[in-house]
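Q: May I have one protein plus its fold?
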Amino acid sequence: MRIAAIDVGSNSVHMIVCRIRPDLSFEVVDREKDMIRLGAASLGGRRLSPAAVATAMQTLAKFKRLAESRAVDEIIATATSAVREAENGADFITAARRDLGLRVRVISGTEEARLIHLAAGYAVGVGRHRSVVIDIGGGSTEITLGTATRVEMARSFKLGAIRLTERFATDDPLPPRDEERLVRHIRREARAYLRQIKARGFERVIGASGTMLSIGGLAAGGRRPAEESRNLRVAVRNIGRLRRRLTRMPLEARLELPGLDPRRADLSAVGAVLIDTLLEDLGATELTLSDFALREGLVLDYIRRNAAHIRTAERYPDVRRRSVIELAERFHAGANHGEQIARLALALFDATAARHGLGQLEREWLEYGARLHDIGHAISYERHHRHSYYLIKNGGLRGFEPDEIEMIALVARYHRQGRPKKSHEPFGALSKSRRRTVRVLSAMVQLAEGLDRSHTQVIDTLAATETDAGDALRVAVTAKGDAELELWAAHRHAEALARALGLRIDVVAAAGHAPATTRKDKDASPHAEQARRAPHVSRPAVRRRGHRRVR
């Protein structure tokens, strides 16, 4: 099933087209945005201008055609403060229904806040942790407090970027007296509410929608596109520095700022003051950016009205794990093989924890990189490891910070026998400790890959122990059938882990589980003789000591 969700805002009209899967998760298959400034000069009960209405209708007609070309089953459309407050807002809704066949529902500020919180909490993966969500639109700002599934407080304030710019920015650059008036107004409107939030307590502040992504991304360095800012954490002190910079710059200079959307340049100074003031009054030190907002909240709300969604949430309650599984399913990666590689790689990780010294977070990256290591097959077998890297980087994983996605993608990228090199741009850009982490984790996936060479999950258990001398790692496996192919392949894939851990590696069949084959089996298997004669690695390991032959 496919649905489209349209958000008619005061500044922009957004649409996403989503495919809802049988398990009631969803993926965005198309998105579009048109910044039409519907609320310009019409907020506060004034009329929507004929020109703005005409432009909005053209945009909605275009979006409807796009949605229909995507074979959607239903279009959900809502309008917020510009239409909600306009004297002729009802006429706008009637025209959309009559001329376009679109049912546009005007939602209250509180409902808007609830839906935004639902989306941001889902995207960032706040779980049961109480979080504040701030969404700054053109006409209003929504501020909520709650967990991923429960909203405790929700308010909408008439503090949108267009509304405040029209009222307080009397000159350019923003005069100090106007900035002071603006701050006093923001605090009159929202300070008491923010104090209530502080009294209840929270663990994280999340910023959603265009103004937040624009200002937050600029404060974090400014040269990344908005879609790469998802889950990016920004220090509030950097937003304060950016505020002081933007309020002193004329519009011409703001238009030239790398990373700032020129269409938002005229609103950026006031937007920065608004964000900084709200965060200061909350006592926040860090802001997490979310690219999910009202439109994704509409999709989630649509899904959650179906009781079956509860079963999906129970099956994959963690947004990170759910996102990885959805990505694997989207590219038809072999579930059994991916799960087997993850299981074996995690067993290696746990058994060598004292040696590599990595923690729970790295363990999670290993599991997800292993699960996704083969999704590149959806493009082609040749160089599929590089395709896997690209798909993971651009697959829209949720709940992860950008640097975590990079690590997961690199673990998958080096699951074959090619070694990570500093000359490889993404790998070389990592810190020294992160490069070591990639080497260790990808080497574990390599060895696990060898232990499922036939893709039949024949290896049942894996136990790894260091020798008393501390110079070798003995990896003993049990099998549910003939494992000669797996043992042969494991010999070939052991070198990377041997180098990473500084150990010789012996992969053997556990006592009582030798891969005995009949003469008929030996004749039928093209790998059997190779397995009996193969050395453990094709080149010397770290200490230049050869591996023992598998018994």
About this structure: The first strand starts at residue 2 and ends at 8. Residues 516-551 have pLDDT under 50 and may be disordered. DSSP finds 24 helices and 14 strands in the chain.
